[in-house]
Write a structure and sequence with these properties.
- The longest helix has 41 residues.
- A three-stranded antiparallel β-sheet has the order 1-3-2.
- The chain contains 16 helices and three strands.
- The protein has 367 residues and is mostly helical.
- The protein is globular and about 65 Å long.
- The protein folds into two domains: 229 residues, Fic-like fold (Orthogonal Bundle), CATH 1.10.3290.10; 70 residues, Winged helix-like DNA-binding domain superfamily/Winged helix DNA-binding domain (Arc Repressor Mutant, subunit A, Orthogonal Bundle).
- Helix 2 packs parallel to helix 12, helix 3 packs across helix 5 and helix 4 crosses helix 5.
Length: 367
């Protein structure tokens, strides 16, 4: 039987030696993250431009845990499309992930990440979805384990710390979270934080998603990002086997170096991907700003554009409600944008049911 893991406090004593040979990778990760952050700082409305990326991150992070809904289905559900119960449950989990990130992003503007915030995040993540019966917002008071589905603790491949020691480990983690050591690289700290959280496994369910949410939140807290905007679930999903193995190397033999190397590679890869995506999104935004202004000849053109970026699939009636204008006027805008092939009708209006529309140019970039 595998023994329960008993983590050492962060930073690990081996850290100086672990970083030997990783200096170039640390530098590269910081350089690409700085370019990404600089791009976000240069735009006036990052919350609008990042909205579709956040939904995609919520989809990917939830998919690691077994959900199969897509970002497009999330938009359709928000626009009133009905889905089978199983799909609806997946969509709710993705929306909860988005709401959890938004909640935490507001909190860290005034307060550092704390155990209280982590519990709040967990309660929001599990609200009204599968796992809501597994003590949302409460750290576990039972022993859990990881292994093949349905296995006993004797057959487990990994056993997190005993619940009797959990409080001490969490307090130590909180101290590390809130301690600003200028000699420690923030991205390396984020790697340590994520691994330690996952290995402690403090909740009955939802540990993976909370652990992934903590990465951008921590980088924003320490000033490496202007906001929690680096989303690396895509990399973790694509490299899930090696991700799990490297975490195992920490618990089995105290090998932090291979884990830190993987995390740095994840940051480099995903920051470069996000950098390219955001550039394309910015280019689209600037192009559409001119085109929609020309097509609609309306003082509402920027608000129309922002609405499309926030909800690229929507009911025709939503534009009227969002802009606070008469139905006839909103219908005129939609008709003009359809004729210009900026909007596509997914489902026509029928009786009292409004049409369902799609802003395909954005979905082609982020989908």
């Amino acid at each position: 039987m595998v023994k329960p893991y008993d983590p050492e406090p962060l930073p690990p004593e081996s850290l100086p030696n672990d970083l030997i040979g990783l200096t170039a990778l640390v530098g590269r990760a910081n350089a690409v993250l700085s370019r990404y952050d600089g791009l976000l700082e240069s735009v006036s409305n990052p919350e609008i431009l990042l909205s579709p990326l956040i939904t995609k991150e919520a989809e990917l992070s939830s998919r690691i845990e077994g959900t199969v809904a897509t970002a497009n289905e999330v938009y359709e559900a928000q626009a009133g499309t009905d889905f089978e119960p199983e799909k609806k449950a997946d969509i709710e989990e993705i929306l909860n992930y988005r709401h959890t990130l938004s909640l935490a992003a507001d909190v860290i503007k005034e307060h550092p990440i704390s155990l209280q915030l982590i519990r709040m995040m967990h309660a929001q993540l599990m609200k009204g979805v599968r796992g809501q019966d597994k003590n949302p917002g409460k750290f576990r008071d039972t022993q859990n384990w990881i292994g093949p589905k349905g296995c006993t603790i004797d057959e487990a491949t990994y056993i997190p710390p005993s619940p009797l020691k959990l409080h001490d480990h969490l307090e130590s983690l909180e101290s590390f979270l809130q301690r600003q050591d200028p000699n420690l690289d923030p991205i390396v700290n984020a790697a340590l934080l994520h691994a330690q959280f996952e290995l402690i496994h403090p909740f009955v369910d939802g540990n993976g998603r909370i652990g992934r949410l903590l990465i951008p939140l921590y980088l924003a807290q320490v000033g490496s990002l202007i906001g929690p905007s680096l989303y690396i679930s895509e990399y973790f999903e694509a490299n899930q086997n090696i991700y799990t193995a490297r975490l195992g190397h920490i618990s089995e033999r105290g090998d932090w170096k291979s884990w830190i190397a993987l995390f740095l590679e994840a940051v480099v890869s995903q920051a470069e991907i996000n950098l390219s995506l955001v550039r394309h999104v910015i280019d689209l935004y600037e192009d559409m700003k001119l085109r929609i202004a020309e097509i609609t000849r309306s003082e509402q053109s920027i608000r129309i554009l922002d609405a499309l970026f926030d909800r690229p699939i929507f009911k025709s009636s939503e534009l009227q409600d969002r802009l606070g204008i008469q139905r006839q006027r909103a219908s005129g805008y939609i008709r003009s944008l359809k004729e210009a092939e900026i909007l596509r009708e997914i489902r026509p209006a029928a009786g009292a049911r409004p049409a369902l529309l799609s802003f395909d140019p954005l979905l082609e970039i982020v989908g």
